[in-house]
């Protein structure tokens, strides 16, 4: 018996007083027991009862307390009658086991009685509403007090107590949600399926749903819950706790995910409508805006459900490609659960559908949809007699000047009108006013015909400048903080810029300048720049400048922060590659453009800014521009009294933009070409004296002329380095990771030699590259004799002797462990300009003496005839996870740079954000039973144990991005990234992708080492052999980052 059960029943007797015991006592006797034996057992207390004992035990306890407390005789006589009238029933059994099951079933009957008779939360709500409507006790607090006075509180935790909070929530739920029949029916369906255990049988859950919106939002949430449980079968009733639905302070809950899906569904329909698609297309989308409608026409995704009773989807084949793509988005994102985890993470940043669809993986879906839309629009416009561009009228002066055109005498009106047209044409040569567009395609179309889309002279620099202090928010005032940075605005602008120039990405000579308002937005900024292969620009392509302001002018303009005025902000400059500017003095501020500081910038007084009447400002802003942020500050300057309102209080002066155009060489095609010609001429004069050289130093000359009139002539003559290819060589070469890394860095290289003893490796390497020499073994005398010196040498010596997974023999392994000595001989004799040696972490943790020996040998090399060190030699343990790859691959990297060529201090590369695992995985390839059946016994055991661990930790194997290591003696898994790819495990594809229910493929492992999929060596060797090769490879982004830092310190160009 449970003490709590006795306590609850005790409280019942105390609250109700003497009444007949509600349940009978059931006693069992063995078959064949005589009446005499029964009488003896009864007298001796040996009869066996099987009915629950709490009822009569608690009765005895309560009466005993009455006696001890001296209750009056009348009360005790009443309780005596209760105890003498207890019903008892005797049943015959055939043994102990039958008695045991009899007892269990009697208790089970009580459980069923509880589920049948206990009022559900919905029933309690209707009881309270009936009490309110029929008896009209008054306020909600008075209802709660009246209820508590009439109903006995037993202290049970199973039934929610009715207090003011419960009454307040119950009436709110009834009046705002249960009054709708569809909502009531959805809740009833859950109760019919799960009884009182339904997740919707809790007042707190219902209240949270009720507060999430009005009827449409509430019905959407309830139907989504039903859909997830009964159709998708992605979650069960027990998973939907209040915490899971509502979320926490740091994570969004399922309710937010559900409502965001609805917003995304409606946004898709609105997006199509904004493109003026045929009305019947919109009707099709509106017919799919409920779960029931969608399931009846499209069915359940293959990821959820049992695949039975799928509707006829042949109707989709008759629809336009735009509709098919839009329905596919609904199926995957809105009515499917596969992307829920990604969506929940993205909600930390923004819940706006436009922002979410700009993020991967949704951006890829929208790219296909928009491409189909653009094709449809283009085809439609061909049939129109006149195409209207989405730009403003040509009458710029009357449209954008604050007060329009002043009235002029009638006799001059014709001449003045002609002058206005000429002025408009003149303005159009230098500036194009374009209202904010809803998409990048619309903006690209608006840019068509402007200077952006026209071919410019060689050497011309194109700038995309964005001021985040004003962008998207034209009504900011001095007492308000800056608006939140909207990455989608920048992303649309950048992509429209590239589209207008018929390019996929930024080219050389194109820059983006972003004024950040002293906020940390570099990460959001970098997410807007994507290369052709889908990878984001590296952080090293970003240069940070500082704009500093005149204090007096800033105080007159801006608010204070803790009594101080911020007199600087960052200007992020992003290029596709290294930032390269012809050196010159600044035109309007002190210093040169070789400095990262610009200023001091004197801000215009507010009265000198672009002032417009308030009513016109609203027109210029449009519907979406006013996004005030932050709220008022007590120490802000008073709002000035002006004839009009500034378009923005945070505008930069014209002088600043003139300086940007000059210092970043925007539009200076002829002058830049002259610099280039001068540089090439200087190079030719120098290179005629050198038949062959690897590097020509840059010669920078800066004139110190202070004549303001000749400012344009201050551009220095710059000699750019000659682009001779760098020479690369490697030993234990594998797939020649160094060449892939060089491609990633955009370096022009000449593969001089490689060396590997594995025939399969050689076959793949020679398929990918064309080396001038290829050696078969580092132990062959030809290697040291014929391998030449190079600019960069890579030696990834065998890891098995030093790995935790190997035998751990170290250099005692004569076949593999002593290879390092041959590489050290090569470095000593050939003295490459730079080198990298790479191996597993075990070289440091298990064989530190070998690592120390390597470092001692390399640092002991001296310049001939001196005691000066030949190399700068450094060592560090790096992890591929910190260099963009979702793989926990720790590697010891030893680097060396010739001190004779080393110009700057070396700094190890900074960490790069790990990319999502799903970017490297083909999520369209979903496994089936055959994948599971292909596993051997060890793999099955490890998979089963890992799934148990995942569930024990509160996870769901098929919903999270879990990777299970199938090999080894014990189970192991990772969430969101792979363990270290090893040779043996890659050979057997021994990694299980839980959400796809299959093993990883060789092509996916290839990508997870940072190798480009477009050169995947299909059918060159078997997948097993290719797996071995991939497992031995060096992660390409990690190596590229190290090489980049080395070449920064030791310039080879």
Automatic annotation (TrEMBL):
Annotated SUPFAM superfamilies: S-adenosyl-L-methionine-dependent methyltransferases
Region (Disordered): 668-689
Gene3D superfamilies (alphabetical): DNA Methylase, subunit A, domain 2, Vaccinia Virus protein VP39
UniProt xrefs under Pfam families: DNA_methylase
Active site, renumbered: 799
GO biological process: methylation
Chemical reaction(s) catalysed: a 2'-deoxycytidine in DNA + S-adenosyl-L-methionine = a 5-methyl-2'-deoxycytidine in DNA + S-adenosyl-L-homocysteine + H(+)
Documented EC number(s): 2.1.1.37
MF term (GO), any: DNA (cytosine-5-)-methyltransferase activity
Domain of life: Eukaryota
Keywords: Methyltransferase, S-adenosyl-L-methionine, Transferase
Broadest EC class assigned to this enzyme: transferase
Ranges annotated as biased composition (Basic and acidic residues): 671-683
PROSITE patterns: C5_MTASE_1 (PS00094), SAM_MT_C5 (PS51679)
Xref: PANTHER family: TRNA (CYTOSINE(38)-C(5))-METHYLTRANSFERASE
Family according to the record: Belongs to the class I-like SAM-binding methyltransferase superfamily. C5-methyltransferase family.
NCBIfam families for the chain: dcm
Protein name: Cytosine-specific methyltransferase
Organism whose genome encodes this protein: Effrenium voratum
Phylogenetic placement of the source organism: Eukaryota, Sar, Alveolata, Dinophyceae, Suessiales
């Amino acid at each position: 018996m449970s003490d709590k059960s006795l306590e609850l029943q005790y409280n019942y007797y105390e609250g109700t007083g003497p009444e007949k015991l509600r349940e009978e006592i059931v006693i069992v006797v063995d078959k064949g027991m005589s009446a005499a034996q029964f009488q003896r057992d009864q007298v001796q207390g040996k009869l066996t009862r099987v009915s629950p004992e709490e009822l009569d035990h608690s009765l005895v306890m309560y009466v005993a307390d009455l006696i001890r407390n001296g209750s009056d005789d009348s009360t005790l006589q009443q309780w005596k009658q209760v105890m003498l009238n207890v019903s008892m029933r005797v049943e015959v059994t055939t043994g102990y086991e039958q008695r045991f099951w009899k007892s269990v079933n009697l208790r089970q009957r009580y459980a069923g009685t509880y589920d049948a008779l206990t009022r559900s939360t919905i029933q309690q709500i209707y009881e309270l509403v009936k009490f309110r409507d029929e008896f009209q006790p008054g306020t909600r607090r008075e209802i709660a007090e009246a209820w508590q006075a009439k109903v006995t509180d037993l202290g049970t935790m199973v039934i929610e107590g009715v207090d003011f909070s419960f009454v307040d929530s119950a009436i709110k739920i009834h009046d705002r949600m249960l009054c709708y029949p569809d909502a009531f029916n959805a809740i009833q369906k859950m109760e019919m399926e799960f009884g009182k255990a339904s997740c919707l049988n809790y007042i707190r859950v219902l209240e949270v749903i009720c507060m999430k919106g009005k009827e449409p939002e509430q019905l959407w949430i309830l139907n989504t819950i039903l859909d997830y449980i009964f159709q998708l079968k992605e979650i069960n009733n027990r998973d939907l706790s209040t915490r899971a639905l509502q979320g926490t302070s740091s994570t969004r809950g399922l309710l937010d995910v559900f409502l965001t899906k609805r917003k995304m569904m409606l946004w898709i329909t609105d997006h199509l409508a904004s493109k003026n698609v045929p009305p019947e297309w919109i009707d099709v989308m509106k017919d799919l805006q409920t779960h029931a409608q969608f399931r009846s026409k499209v069915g359940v995704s293959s990821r959820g459900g049992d695949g039975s009773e799928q509707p006829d989807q042949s109707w989709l084949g008759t629809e336009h490609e735009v509709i098919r793509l839009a329905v596919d988005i609904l199926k995957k994102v809105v009515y499917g659960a596969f992307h829920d985890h990604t969506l929940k993470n993205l909600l930390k940043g923004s819940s706006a559908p436009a922002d979410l669809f700009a993020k991967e993986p949704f951006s890829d879906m929208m790219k296909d949809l928009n491409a189909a839309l653009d094709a449809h629009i283009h085809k439609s416009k061909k049939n129109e007699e006149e195409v209207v561009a989405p730009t403003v009228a040509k009458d710029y002066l009357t449209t954008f000047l604050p007060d329009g055109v002043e009235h002029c005498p009638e006799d001059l009106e014709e001449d003045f009108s002609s002058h206005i047209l000429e002025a408009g044409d003149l303005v159009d040569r230098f500036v194009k006013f374009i209202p904010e567009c809803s998409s990048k395609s619309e903006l690209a179309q608006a840019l068509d015909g402007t200077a952006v889309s026209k071919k410019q002279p060689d050497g011309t620099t194109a700038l995309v400048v964005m001021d985040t202090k004003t962008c998207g928010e034209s009504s900011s005032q001095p007492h308000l903080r800056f608006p939140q940075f909207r990455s989608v605005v920048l992303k649309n602008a950048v992509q429209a810029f590239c589209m207008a120039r018929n390019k996929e990405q930024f080219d050389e000579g194109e820059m983006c300048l972003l004024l950040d308002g002293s906020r940390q937005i570099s990460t959001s900024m970098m997410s807007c720049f994507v290369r052709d292969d889908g990878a984001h620009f590296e952080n090293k392509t970003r240069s940070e400048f500082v704009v500093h302001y005149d204090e007096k002018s800033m105080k007159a303009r801006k608010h204070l922060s803790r009594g101080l005025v911020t007199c600087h902000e960052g200007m992020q400059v992003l290029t596709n590659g290294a930032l390269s500017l012809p050196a010159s003095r600044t035109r309007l501020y002190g210093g040169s453009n070789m400095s990262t500081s610009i200023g001091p910038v004197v801000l215009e007084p507010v009265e000198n800014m672009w002032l417009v009447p308030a009513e016109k400002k609203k027109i210029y802003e449009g519907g979406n521009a006013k996004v005030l942020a932050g709220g008022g500050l007590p120490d802000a300057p008073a709002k000035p009294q002006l004839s009009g309102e500034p378009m923005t209080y945070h505008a930069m002066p014209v002088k600043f933009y003139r300086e940007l155009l000059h210092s970043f060489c925007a539009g200076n095609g002829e002058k830049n070409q002259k610099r280039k010609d001068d540089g090439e001429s200087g190079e030719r004069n120098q290179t005629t004296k050198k038949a062959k050289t690897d590097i020509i130093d840059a010669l920078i000359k800066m004139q110190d002329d202070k004549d303001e009139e000749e400012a344009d002539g201050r551009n220095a003559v710059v000699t750019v380095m000659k682009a001779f290819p760098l020479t690369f060589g490697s030993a234990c070469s594998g797939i020649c990771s160094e060449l892939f890394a060089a491609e990633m860095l955009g370096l022009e290289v000449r593969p001089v030699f490689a060396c590997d003893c594995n025939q399969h490796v050689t076959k793949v390497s020679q398929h990918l590259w064309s080396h001038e020499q290829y050696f078969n073994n580092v132990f062959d005398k030809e290697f040291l004799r014929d391998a030449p010196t190079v600019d960069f040498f890579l030696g990834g010596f065998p890891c098995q002797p030093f790995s935790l997974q190997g035998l751990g023999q170290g250099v005692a392994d004569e076949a593999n462990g002593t290879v390092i000595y041959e590489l050290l001989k090569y470095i000593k004799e050939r003295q490459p300009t730079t080198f990298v040696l790479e191996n597993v972490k075990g070289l440091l943790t298990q064989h530190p003496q070998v690592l120390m020996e390597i470092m001692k040998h390399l640092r002991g090399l001296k310049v001939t005839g001196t005691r000066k060190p030949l190399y700068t030699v450094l060592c560090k343990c790096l992890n591929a996870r910190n260099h963009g790859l979702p793989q926990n691959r720790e590697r010891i990297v030893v680097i060396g740079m010739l001190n004779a060529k080393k110009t700057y201090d070396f700094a190890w590369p900074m960490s790069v954000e790990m990319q999502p695992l799903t970017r490297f995985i083909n999520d369209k390839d979903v496994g089936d039973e055959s994948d599971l059946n292909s596993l051997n016994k060890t793999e099955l055991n490890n998979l089963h144990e890992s799934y148990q661990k995942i569930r024990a930790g509160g996870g769901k194997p098929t919903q999270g991005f879990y990777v299970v290591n199938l090999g080894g003696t014990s189970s192991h898994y990772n969430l969101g990234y792979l363990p270290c790819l090893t040779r043996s495990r890659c050979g057997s594809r021994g990694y299980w992708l839980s959400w796809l229910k299959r093993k990883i493929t060789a092509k996916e492992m290839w990508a997870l080492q940072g190798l480009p999929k477009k050169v995947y060596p299909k059918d060159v060797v078997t997948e097993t052999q290719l797996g071995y090769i991939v497992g031995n490879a060096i992660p390409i982004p990690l190596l590229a980052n190290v090489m980049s830092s080395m070449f920064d310190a030791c310039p080879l160009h």
